[in-house]
Structure formats: structure tokens, C-alpha cells
Amino acid sequence: MKKIEFSKEEKAEIVSRIRAYFDRELDPIGALSAEFLLDFFIEEIGPYVYNRGLRDAQAALLKRMEDMAEDIHLLEREEKILAP
After folding, report:
1. Which of 5, 15, 51, 70 is the most buried (most CB within 10 A)?
2. CB burial class (10 A; 0-12, 13-18, 19+) of residue 41?
3. Is the pTM of this model over 0.85?
4. Cβ(46)–Cβ(4) under 8 Å?
5. What confidence tens digit (pLDDT) does each residue in 6-23 have?
């Protein structure tokens, strides 16, 4: 599996949100600690979240395919049997 990575800007935004959460709900946390925490989440929890997203996308795609199959069936015309 490809490693989960974020751009520098994305990582900065996520670290900022982690720090804001800690400030609001727990004890303040420094930028470096928040970055280490993010790296831990990406490494340990990221694959679970990623795989759940894939399963949800697959289920949505299968549902759409089922709907399309029904739509195609509704478009079918009655076939007349020709006498020999």
C-alpha cells in the first residue's frame, strides 16, 4: 500500500487543528508534539480510515451499477417472435 502523505500546507492545517483541539479540550500541545501525533495517526489509524473510504466508495459504485442495470432493463423493448 502506498504511504499516506499530505502536502506541507495540508499538514500545517491538520497540526493547527490538532493544537486547537488540545487547547479547547485537553492541555495545550506544541507544534512538534502535534506533528508527532499526526504522524502516529497517519501510520497507525490512517490505513483503517483509508480502507473504510475504499469500501464505502465500492459500495456506492456497486449501487450505481445496480441502478444502471435496472434502468437499462426498463429501456428494453418487447421482442416479437417471428413465426417460421
Report:
1. 15
2. middle
3. no
4. yes
5. 999 999 999 999 999 999
